Amino acid sequence: MKQLFIRATLVTLLAVGIVALYSPSAAAQDAAGTFKAKCAMCHGADGKGGKMGTRDFASPEVKAETDAQLTVIITKGKGKMPAYEGKLKDTEIKDLVAYVRSLAK
Ligand code: HEC
Q: Hey, what domains does the chain have and what are their CATH numbers?
């Protein structure tokens, strides 16, 4: 009986581990979808910018900005860049910063 319980616990831990392992790619997919829906009209689907005076995410200026700075710009807005505070969760904004970086490669 006790052994069965231990085995069930191990199976649960394994399942949790697998979910944790795969969630980063799920988050990246979410970020890609969010970017397409909310950001691409100004930044371009590939983040190259061009509309509304946006910069290429791969430009030296944007690369020089820290993740913390990009997070603040997305959260609080800047100039024509809308603020997403309250519209996106902190975790979604964090994933978007990572996605923006991935577009800059
Ligand atoms: C209405 C057009 C518009 C939309 C929609 C928009 N942005 Fe922006 N974004 C801008 C502009 C314009 C800037 C430049 C702001 C400045 O420096 O004055 C900017 C700046 C940024 C920056 C900082 C990089 C830089 O140029 O210094 C990031 C990161 C960013 N946007 C991400 C996003 C994300 C992520 C979304 C979607 C959730 C988004 N933006 C939606 C217009 C937009």
A: 2-103 (1.10.760.10)
